[in-house]
Amino acid sequence: MIAAPPEFAPIPARERLLALDALRGIALLGILLSNVASFAGPLAELSEGIDPKLSGSDYWLSAFVYVAIRNKFWTLFSLLFGMGFAVMLERARDAGRGFGAVYLRRSIGLLAIGLIHAWLIWAGDILVTYALSAFVLLALRSWSGASWLKLGAALYLGTIAYLLLVAAALTVPGVAQGDAADLARAQAERAAEVAVYAHGDYFAVTGQRLRFFFESTTRGWIMMLPLSLGLFLIGAGLARTGLVADPRRHRALLRGFVRIGLPVGAMLTVVSLMIDSAPSLALFSASSMLAQTLHMLAGLPLALALIAGVLLLMQGGARWPLRFAPAGRMALSNYLGQSLIATWALYHHGLNLWGRLSYTELIAAAVVLFALQMAASTWWLRHFRFGPLEWLWRAFAYWRRPAMRSAFTRGVSSEE
């Protein structure tokens, strides 16, 4: 009887792909800037455009976040998730060690962390969606990189095509669009959500989070699951080519991503702005749906251009992206930390700053918070191998406790 291959273990820091860590850190900053207004407002407004009621620096910062950040950085993070999966799978195969059981527990652990985040901390969670997509990704692990790319593109572009068809259908006479009654209903729901966050205790806020999860998040999975899984597969397929591990060999492809991705993404963003710069889910219309869909589609070529640009810069000797790497290595701890700090500061059961900060102040606070997280992550990783949640996640995934202290602080060789 042939023994099962041993499961693989967490890799030493020296073997990590620093480019992936740096890109995760950059993505984490973008996600925070995109989310900060939703920490301080109704979650239904997360996908909406530039707020026309704002003025001065508030307006221009809102415009910057919507144009340059929104939909670009969650797309980037999704691609990186798939790339990380492919790297883990290849390393396990090269070592002749088991992968399926570890990644299954890893996905179950991510699902548990995501549910805790969504139900008890902040309702705008993305981790549950990622975990559900990761289960499918695991089931497709035997596929080739080309098959991953084809299915990923089909899922992502197929979902975009469906949304475009919905927008087209809304232009047909007789097809219902949102009316004044729908707008009034949406406004009332948002006012009720704001009242809970601004005046409710922790238990009232938790009830609101649960309602949002079961009424809105789960309903949104019909779009978000194929989009996220599609991006995972695209990222995994690209990583299978060696794009991240050996960017020098793929310079032509990387330059192509930059040369094509930047203008295509910029063009789609500009067209979406020309159609509607302030699309709203509160009023369902053809122009709003079309503008939001094109804006979302712009995220993929721009995210690919950003990945390629950072890889080319680092291959050329640039060191500044590495400043984001420690935050990227602790992305899970930092992501949940952002939610904990923001909700504690803004909600009534915390510092109760709800409604007291301008958009400019919220962005400034987000930048300061991320700068502190970068510094704290750098300090932490001088002493420890993993962030606190990363250690817990790995302990569950590998079914044993990995060493927490770094080799340096334990006074042993880095080759341990």
From TrEMBL:
Domain DUF418: where?
Answer: 238-400
Bilayer-spanning residue ranges: 22-44, 64-89, 101-120, 126-143, 155-176, 221-245, 257-275, 295-314, 326-347, 359-381
InterPro entries reported for this sequence: Bact_Transport_Assoc (IPR052529), DUF418 (IPR007349)
Keyword annotations: Membrane, Transmembrane, Transmembrane helix
- Superkingdom is Bacteria
Name of protein: DUF418 domain-containing protein
Q: Write down the species.
A: Lysobacter gummosus
